[in-house]
Amino acid sequence: xxxxxxxxxxxxxxxxxxxxxxxxxxxxxxxxxxxxxxxxxxxxxxxxxxxxxxxxxxxxxxxxxxxxxxxxxxxxxxxxxxxxxxxxxxxxxxxxxxxxxxxxxxxxxxxxxxxxxxxxxxxxxxxxxxxxxxxxxxxxxxxxxxxxxxxxxxxxxxxxxxxxxxxxxxxxxxxxxxxxxxxxxxxxxxxxxxxxxxxxxxxxxxxxxxxxxxxxxxxxxxxxxxxxxxxxxxxxxxxxxxxxxxxxxxxxxxxxxxxxxxxxxxxxxxxxxxxxxxxxxxxxxxxxxxxxxxxxxxxxxxxxxxxxxxxxxxxxxxxxxxxxxxxxxxxxxxxxxxxxxxxxxxxxxxxxxxxxxxxxxxxxxxxxxxxxxxxxxxxxxxxxxxxxxxxxxxxxxxx
Length: 399
Fold this sequence. Notes:
The protein is mainly alpha-helical. It has helices spanning 2-18, 27-48, 53-59, 70-81, 99-112, 116-128, 132-135, 143-167, 172-177, 182-208, 219-241, 243-246, 253-265, 275-289, 302-309, 313-323, 328-345, 354-360, 366-377, 381-386.
C-alpha cells in the first residue's frame, strides 16, 4: 500500500509539470516537492514496512542527497506563488538552499566506488538487518546523524514558508490575483509540518535508543511510518480538492481581470467615481508615494506597494496593466535607471564603484544593473558617462 501511495505521488508530480502554464510556473517547485517526498517514502518503506530490498538498492546512495530538496522546494513554491512575475525566477542566493545536496553527495561518495562484490555484501547485510545502514561509516558523518539533520533542515524551510503565508494571510486580493487558494497553502504546510515532526520522532527514537537489532524496532515505529505514508496521501489528494492548483487553465486570466474591473468600478476614494477617475486618483496617490523612491529597495514589488499605500493589490495590478499599459517590472527598472542616470549626471556617483551604484539603485548584481541600464538607455554606464554633455533627460516619474 505504501508503495502505491508513493507511485501515486510520483505520477502527480509528472501531472503538475504536464499542466504547467505561464500563470502557474511555481508548480515546478510543487512538482519537485511531491517527487522528493515520494522517493523518501518509497525508500523508507522498502527498508521498514515491506521487503523490497531491490528498490532500496536502487535508491542507495544515489538519490539520498536529493532528499534535502523537499524543504527548499516547498518554501520556493509558497514564495514564488505569491511573488510578482518578475520575482518568480530563481535568484542566485536561492541556489544555496540546495548546498546540502552536494555535501551529502560527498558524504556518500565512498559507496559510489564500491566493487560489485562489496556492494552485494553490503545489501545482503541490509536485507538481513536494515538498521545496519545507520551504523555504516560514511566519509563525513553516519546516516543516523543525517536522519536527524535532514528533517530539521527541511523544518526550517517549512517555517519560513509559513511565515510568508502569515504575512499575506489577510491580503485576499493577492491570493485572488494569483488564482491561488490560501486554504491549500495552509493545509499543505500543516501536513508537511506534521510529517517532518513524525519523521524526526522516528529518527530520534532509533538514535536515542541506539537500536541496532531490527527485531527490536517496535510496532509504534512501524505505525508512525504508516501514518507518514497516509499524510503523504492527504497532501496528494489536496491538489484535487483545490483544482486551480493543477488545472489553472480552466480558470483563465480574462475571467479574473473582468472580475477585478467590476470591483474597481466600486472604488470608494471620493464616493463612487468612474473607472477613469479612480485610476487617476490611484495615480495621484502613487505619485506621492514614489517621491521617496521606494523602488530603489532590492526586492521591491507590487505587494510592497499594496502594503504601504493600503491600495488593494488587484487594483494596483490593473492600474499598471490597464491604465499605464506597462509591465511593472519594466516600469520599475526604468525608474531605477532614471535614478542611476541622475547620480551620474550630477556627479553624485563620481567616487562610487559600479557595484555601489547598482546597490544604490536596488540591484544586487552588477551584471543585472548593466543589462537594465543598456536596455533603457541603449548604452553601458561607462559609455553614458562619456557622452554626458550631449544627453539631457527628465528624471521625473509621471503617471
